[in-house]
Amino acid sequence: MNLIVNDLQPSNANAVKFLSTKDKKMLIGANWVDAVSGQRLNSHDPATGRVNGTIPRASKADVDLAVKAAREAFEKGVWRNKTADERSRVLWKISELIEANAQELIELETLDQGKPLYVSGAEIYGAAAQFRYFAGMCSKIEGETIAPSINYQPPGKRVIAHTLKEPLGVVAAIMPWNSPLVLEAMKIAPILAAGCSMIMKPAEDTSLSTVRLAELILEAGVPPGVFNLVTGLGGEVGQALAEHMDIDKVAFTGSTATGRKILSAAQSNLKKVALELGGKSPTIVFDDAELDIAIPGAANAILWNTGQVCVAGSRLYIHKKVFDKVVSGIADIAKGMKLGHGLDPTTQMGPLVNKVQADKVKSYIDSGVSEGAEVVTGGQQLGANGTFISPTVITKVKQSMKIVREEIFGPVVVATPFESLDEVQHLANDTRYGLAASIWSQNLSTVHRLAADIRAGTVWVNCHHFFDASLPIGGYKESGFSRDCGMQAVDNYLETKTVCMVV
Asked: Model-level pTM?
């Protein structure tokens, strides 16, 4: 493993042009504006600490203006009253614009979040795919005809009934910093497909690519006021959105702790809430697994995007017969990874999003060691800026340890041996989370039994991190409720109205 960090700058001309205007603005209605207070926040390159630019530090006053713009657009019907085909064409246009500007967006995402170019590339093209998929869903929003068992008196009349699917209203989307654009697309695309208006609040650490996306959304033809962008701190802007009396729903992706705060704040007007929260996902390797596939697969499950993934395979359960071989194989992969600036095309792992997160991850590693765990490889905090964590494999852990119980959100995996199917089923479910899991085995009976018994929203078999806009994503237990992706995501932003009539 080696670490080389240079102060690299984007090579794409459009990215250079975008960053040349340092002070970015918010989008409220048809206007690009500063915060009412005039306050701003710095946006840093996490690899070097260099300031990429600044964003407005919005407050409740700015939120009020954005909600007003979204509400006016919704009530006027400038978007919800368009035909399904008209909305579909606009969403498709957004996907085309994302792909046409992909290299710019990839470099902006990497410079703002720290992730390697190949990770940003997968996510930017994944964002485009979200808009294409939900462009097709605009025409699939359908009600039902119902035959009620109601006898109308006097006779001679008939009772007929049907349901209508109608857009929910104004939605606030509050987003995390780990994979900004693709996770935002997973909210924006179904919200717009349903005919709602919205306010997007990106994470304060990673707002730059969202500003560029907002420009593309307007260029594609989304009417002013339908999509609004407000930047700032979660405790200020996010809180104001969650409490706002004129917002109909909050869609949040992020930590379970913040999800609880949003759920509490939403009591203000009993607004609906969609929560996609944290995880502590098990990766389970059986002794009959194809180890030449399972070992790099299990490594990728935790090391992709520096482990800053809600579904990261951070708990590794390995059959006792192959435990040493799998641990050794994953450790070798970890040792061989090149750490560096994300804009360096040879970088395999970038920094964490900021030093606060890196300090937090290092504290988890240290707590494990203090409780008797053994670091097989990694465990170091690196770089002049202190934002790099060497990929870390830990063994000799107990289920009671913090590093096994809590979400670390970094490149740290804890490995535990098991002997039986019943044992590993218990271990996999021994968590307050239930977001994802992966099973590595060639035995169909084993796979089917365990996939049915694991309490998680997604179970991958002989793979991990496989995503598609058609595949619902969401969690059990404290990993949240509702689903992103698939038709269920559109349903999140629709109301069902029953119409019953006598004719």
From this structure: 0.97
